[in-house]
Amino acid sequence: MALATTTASFSVSSPPFSSCLYHRRRRSCDVVTAASASPARRSEAVQREDIVIVGAGVAGLATAVSLRRLGVGATVLEQGTSLRAGGTSLTLFKNGWRVLDAIGVADELRSEHLRIQGIKMRSAAGATTDVLREFTFEEEAPGQEVRAVERRALLEALASRLPPGAISFSSKLRSIAGQGPDGTVLELEDGRRILSKVVVGCDGVNSPIARWMRFSEPRYVGHMAFRGLARYDGGGGHPFEPKVNYIYGRGLRAGFVPVSPTKVYWFICFNRPTPGPKITDPAALKREALELVRGWPADLLTVMGDTPDDAVIRTPLVDRWLWPGLAPPASRGGVVLAGDAWHPMTPNLGQGACCALEDAVVLARSLAAAAAGSDSGLGSAEPYAEAMRAYERERWPRVFPLTARAGLVGALVQWENPAVCAARDGVVIPRLVRLGPFLEHTNFDCGPLEPAAPPPSP
Ligand SMILES: Cc1cc2nc3c(=O)[nH]c(=O)nc-3n(C[C@H](O)[C@H](O)[C@H](O)COP(=O)(O)OP(=O)(O)OC[C@H]3O[C@@H](n4cnc5c(N)ncnc54)[C@H](O)[C@@H]3O)c2cc1C
Fold first, then answer.
1. Do residues 246 and 299 make contact, with C-beta atoms less than 8 angstroms apart?
2. pLDDT at position 22, please?
3. Ligand 1: which atom is nearest the Cα of residue 56?
4. Of the residues 135, 146, 249, 436, which has the fewest C-beta atoms closer than 10 A?
5. Ligand 1, closest atom to CA 55?
6. Where is coiled-coil annotated (predicted)?
């Protein structure tokens, strides 16, 4: 297959890549960094890599760390100038912790984040003390591990396991310029070009790589979320029990959960036909959030009031269902997707980041086996293409149903109909909800991070 590049002046004459085992040094003769390249040189020179991961979010960093643990190096391109510092927190369940254990960052995060003991469900109409239902994980879902982890802490813990320089910041992918036998040509906003045998698209929900692979745009599901992180730095910290607090209204729900002794995460989900204009003034965002839940239980309002304005964000909720036969494959040539770039899902099950972590382990295992295969002389591209297909075969049955289920749960809990909400508060929550079966999906275990056997030599 000839290299089909959209840029006429560009040609690739490098010899085929050999291996990407981590102990091999990256070929440095024609490597050009953002800092060192003059604009003229940037447009001519090609940086060559074996594995490039686009996006230093949860999926990208976890994939890089997993690969590294299997002896395979990768370069991570991140558009930001540093790791994302904001973004409040992510509730991680047992399946997410299994992955963090496998890649060696769980204990560090456990020491900084409270273990959540249970769930308290209330109605917005009642007083702070009126509880519809209260569960403990120990009784209803023994062995469950739930913690709300600061996104910043998660990203920093993952990044700390990578060698210096593994993440290239200020490196925004502009486009995929072509694919050929030697790999895929990436074009960056600053004019750099990178030829990589393998490209892992971890560029999030608005992934330009997914667009290039002809995935449909993520679908807005009709509700939006506010999130915030309250701080209790002075004195004795916050007064809340380590429980998830859910409060249900009509077409509106909110919740809060302690993250650490000094931080509490909260959220509001509200119906809205279209996402509307982006609000950039943080104080206006917080006012809008408080207005939505005016008159709701006092503890929620206290937590929101204790949140710095710049720690409040508003996000439209989107997903993309990977219908068999309709969604494109997860890989195209040497390019593969992971995390939200492949399967954006609504946060109703708290599984987006957990699944991104699972993807990372499964993909890294597959790619590492292919790297070993390519080392044993199986040729350059085919072992990786097969590794990507194997990854998709393993992950699709997991992520498609979860995406659909998260969407359906969201549609149910966002109902506005007064009779339906009364039935929810009077019958469904107090009598019918069972935590164990509801959290069944968190029992998933994608296994240890051990290299799969390389394919046999021809
Ligand atoms: C309201 C809300 C609440 C949530 N709560 C939870 C929860 O409790 N538990 C849970 O498990 N999940 C939760 N999620 C889901 C979770 O946030 C995502 O699933 C997770 O962040 C996906 O990680 P990712 O690495 O795929 O994408 P991201 O975290 O979005 O990372 C993508 C990275 O790619 C970079 N990037 C993008 N484009 C380019 C480019 N062109 N060039 C270079 N870099 C680029 C971005 O800067 C970013 O660093 C929630 C989501 C929302 C919206």
1. no
2. 32
3. 49
4. 436
5. 34
6. none
